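dumping the sequnces here before i forget
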Amino acid sequence: AQKVTQAQTEISVVEKEDVTLDCVYETRDTTYYLFWYKQPPSGELVFLIRRNSFDEQNEISGRYSWNFQKSTSSFNFTITASQVVDSAVYFCALSEIYDMRFGAGTRLTVKP
Amino acid sequence: ETGVTQTPRHLVMGMTNKKSLKCEQHLGHNAMYWYKQSAKKPLELMFVYSLEERVENNSVPSRFSPECPNSSHLFLHLHTLQPEDSALYLCASSQEAGPYEQYFGPGTRLTVT
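..and the predicted 3d for all of it:
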């Protein structure tokens, strides 16, 4: 069965600090997809990234970077030089076919 | 309108009422989804529709009845709900059904009294 664990319930940092959000997943399939979504206070989830299980290359997009390690079943998300606008709940998710399984989310608060 | 819209944004209903949630996507996508987000559980996938056909139903109680008349519209009909059904109901769409990026609406905050 699929499972996504985000052990960090809440994280608080001061602006300009770097922060890493952890995501650990479980699946029996060899083909699967991992996602990160951001949910700002407005409530609407915003897609950030999608990776398939065969692509372990790390990805960087501006201040955001993702580290995918199959050996530890982890797909961690790092925000460099955090900003107040990064404050949100961040969800990691796993999908095999139609079922998208989300983690419980990590609430990130960035203080000025 | 752009993206995914949901109406109403807030809904309060009694346990004996019947109401419907509406979702519309303006992205030309072929798949639509209903999710439930409550304080005590992670985001839960309820239903998946691909080209108006339901392809996934995650053991959702029959008091929730989805309807997809076309690929742009998705409804969730509610009847005889329980207080524990109070939650944020999110609609999403994607190009195709499956492990693709989904675009979410702002949600409907439902309170069952």
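The longest strand of chain A covers residues 88-95.
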